[in-house]
Write a structure and sequence with these properties.
Largest sheet: none
Number of domains: 1
Radius of gyration: 14 Å
Number of helices: 1
Structural class: mainly alpha
Helix content: over 70%
Strand content: under 5%
Number of strands: 0
Order of helices and strands: H
């Protein structure tokens, strides 16, 4: 796997984790 694709994949995964945490915290606040 080329390095550039690997970096993009890791970045996308990291952003996905951040987005997921953000969505979870927002929904938690709305439910409380």
């Amino acid at each position: 796997m080329p390095l550039m694709i690997q970096i993009l994949y890791l970045e996308a995964h990291r952003m996905g984790q951040i987005m997921k945490d953000c969505i979870i915290s927002i929904t938690t606040h709305m439910c409380l």
